[in-house]
Specification:
binds guanine; 10 strands; three-stranded parallel sheet
Length: 283
């Protein structure tokens, strides 16, 4: 039964050891990849994600700095900091942790990041280039979903693939990446009629709705592949995904766990993008 579970831990560990070697090589050439992370306020989930990012960087020899601002920072002050980082040649990746406080215009902040340092892949330039299949920084979580499917040997060409969720961070870009791999993609969302009807016909389901246990075993067909992007806490405070793991595991041919699944690949892809940016800058 265990080989049904696609291990993010195994794959992320492999990718991180490859990145570590690559960073060592770059260091010998005088290139020292560096990620700057901006965090505004004290959202506990954001603080925990950011801690994880710094830990990963340290493990792989990537320099990272943490730039923390209080909730009260103004839009102009934040723009000024990003401008400073854009012009700092020692910085290869700039990540502004989301969400930002309500008085700050997220779109304007994200799009003030130099596209060549946008390792999250959130700027309009990167999103546009991804959509037309040009070289870009692919957003880390959608790319992580593709990495998990590749690792599990799932070829998407001609497959019926359902994405549940239409966020800019996951749903829309993961649908684009799946389409580029020639899947037949359906995007479901809060206004979709009878989601089960769609999911029951799907060969592959990527669920990113932010609702614990949303996708249940009775909603999927025998042998389907389930990629679970959710990171939620259930009523007992336990970390869990958007799929009801136990019921889906009985029906699926493969499934990603939470924790230990896509989340670790999100983190690994941030490292990959930072190293790619450092390599581009060194050219
Ligand atoms: N908040 C939740 N996920 C992400 C992410 O991937 N990047 C950033 N910058 N903020 C996030």
């Amino acid at each position: 039964m265990d080989n049904k579970i696609i291990s993010g831990k195994e794959l992320a560990t492999k990718i991180k050891s490859e990145i570590k070697l690559e960073v060592e090589k770059l260091n010998l050439e005088g290139i020292f990849p560096k990620l700057s992370v901006i965090i505004v306020g004290e959202n506990p989930a954001s603080l925990s994600y950011v801690r994880g990012k710094h830990k990963d960087c340290a493990e792989c020899g990537i320099i990272s700095d943490n730039i923390a601002f209080p909730e009260t920072i103004t839009q102009d002050e934040l723009l000024e900091e990003i401008n400073r980082l854009n012009n700092d040649n020692s910085v290869h990746g700039i990540l502004v942790q989301l969400p930002l406080p309500n008085h700050i215009d997220e779109y304007e902040i994200i799009n003030s990041i130099a596209p060549e340092k946008d390792v999250d892949g959130f700027t309009a330039i990167n999103v546009g280039n991804m959509n037309i299949g040009k070289d870009c920084f692919a957003p880390c979580t959608p790319q992580g979903c593709m990495d998990m499917l590749d690792y599990a040997g799932v070829d998407l060409a001609g497959k019926d693939l359902v994405v549940i969720g239409r966020s800019n961070i996951v749903g829309k870009p993961v649908a684009t990446l799946a389409l580029q791999r020639s899947a037949t993609v359906t995007i479901c969302h809060s206004k979709t009629k009878n989601i089960s009807e769609k999911t029951k016909n799907a060969d592959v389901i990527i669920v990113a709705v932010g609702k614990a246990g949303f996708l249940t075993g009775d909603m999927i067909k025998e042998g389907a592949v389930v990629v679970d992007v959710g990171i939620n806490r259930n009523d007992n405070g336990k970390l869990c995904g958007d799929a009801d793991f136990d019921s889906c595991l009985k029906v699926a041919s493969k499934i990603t766990p939470v924790p230990g699944g896509v989340g670790l690949l999100t983190r690994a892809n941030l490292l990959k993008n930072t190293v790619k940016s450092a390599k581009n800058a060194g050219k």
